[in-house]
Every structure is written in structure tokens, then in C-alpha cells.
Amino acid sequence: MTHDHHHQHSEPAPSHCCGGGHSHEATPPADQAYYCPMCEGVGSDKPGIYPKCGMALEHNPTVPANVQYTCPLHPKIIRDEPGSCPICGMALEPMAPTDEEDVELKDMTRRFWIAAVLTLPLVAIAMGRMVPSISEILHGTFTPWIELALATPVVLWAGAPFFVRGWQSIVSRYLNLFTLIAIGTKEGEKRLTAMRSD
Fold first, then answer.
1. What is the Cα 63 distance to its own chain's centre?
2. Which one, of 73, 76, 100, lies nearest residue 89 by Cα?
3. What would the 3-class secondary structure string for the chain be?
């Protein structure tokens, strides 16, 4: 009887914790933001330490992290979703480290390269006017329309984020750098259009 009793207690406990003999990593609970990597079925909505085994709870990769966003220049601005600061117009940044893709950087990079491709012919036309032989070819009614067709998407599409934030700064009465960029860019386009139409 003594031998049998000892044998029963030497078996790995069918239990939840690393102390029970499990050596594999636990499966994260589907509805818990944090879980113990060594203790099966142990989860929590908040980070912390599981007292039974002393392991720090890890973030469940299957559950989106509850990340808040703030403005680097105005920490009092805190939002639950990414966006722009209503005071200065800067993009809000996550308050905690995250693996989320920088959507704004990706979008602005795409706008930059497309605008660069459209701008190269404009630079070539402008420089070509300084060469007498090329200037004669460019002198005509069609050239200003080509320039307008190339410049319009650069200003209105590639620069759209600046116009949006500039308008937001006017509506919120927090005038900032984006206000100047939006007004200056639009005024420059108006003057360029007027010069080309003369």
C-alpha cells in the first residue's frame, strides 16, 4: 500500500502550473489579454505576476493590445486610436512599445515618391527654359497646361494631409505649423496658376 501511495504522488499533476511538471509553453486563453506562459489556463486582463509560480504574465498575441496614443509635444492629449493632435497637428504616437505598422509613415512615403515622379518633368521643363534651343520648343500654349496637370496632383493629393490638418487647426482655433503650410502652399499654387495663365 505504501508503494502504491508513493507512486500516485510521483505522477505529474494534471494541473495548471509549471510546478505541476509541465515543460511546454501554455496555450494563451482566447479571451484574456495576458497569460502565464508556463501555466495552462491562467489568464488576466491586466499585466502582473502569477503568484503560484512567480512568472510574469505575457501579452496574449491573439488579443489586440489596448494601446493608447499621445502627442509628443502635448502629453495631455490621450486617445484610444491613432490620429493627429488637435493642438499642433502632429501624429499621435503609442504610449507603450508596439509592433503596429506606422500607417502614416507608409502613406506619406507613398505620396512622396509619386509626387517626386510627377515633379521631375516640372523641373526638366523649368530648367529647359534656360536653354535657348529647348526654350523655343517649350514656348507655346500647351506647356502651361502640362505643368498644371503635373503640379495639381502633387499639391492637392500629395499635400492633402497638410491641408486637412491645416483646416483642423483653423476649426479648433489652434493655429500651428500646418496652418502656415496649408495657406502657403495654396497661395503658391494660386500665384503659379496666375503666372501660367498670363
1. 19
2. 73
3. CHHHHHHHHHCCCCCCCHHHCCCCCCCCCCCCCEECCCCCCCEECCCCECCCCCCECEECCCCCCCCCEECCCCCCCEECCCCECCCCCCECEECCCCCCCCHHHHHHHHHHHHHHHHHHHHHHHHHHCCCHHHHHHHCCCHHHHHHHHHHHHHHHHHCHHHHHHHHHHHHHCCCCHHHHHHHHHHHHHHHHHHHHHC
Cα(126)–Cα(74) distance, integer angstroms: 42
Residues 6+ apart with CB under 8 A from 72: 90, 93
User: Cα separation of 198 and 188, whole Å?
Assistant: 16
Flag whether the pTM goes above 0.70.
no
Tens-place pLDDT, residues 13-53: 334 455 444 455 666 666 666 777 767 767 676 667 766 66
- Backbone conformation region of residue 54, classed left if phi is above 0, alpha if psi is from -120 to 50, else beta: left
Rounded to the nearest 10 degrees, how much is the dihedral formed by the CA atoms of 159, 162, 164, 168? -170
In whole numbers, what is the pLDDT of the chain averaged over residues?
74
> In this structure, what C-alpha cell is assigned to residue 80?
484610444
Q: What is the pLDDT of residue 8?
A: 43
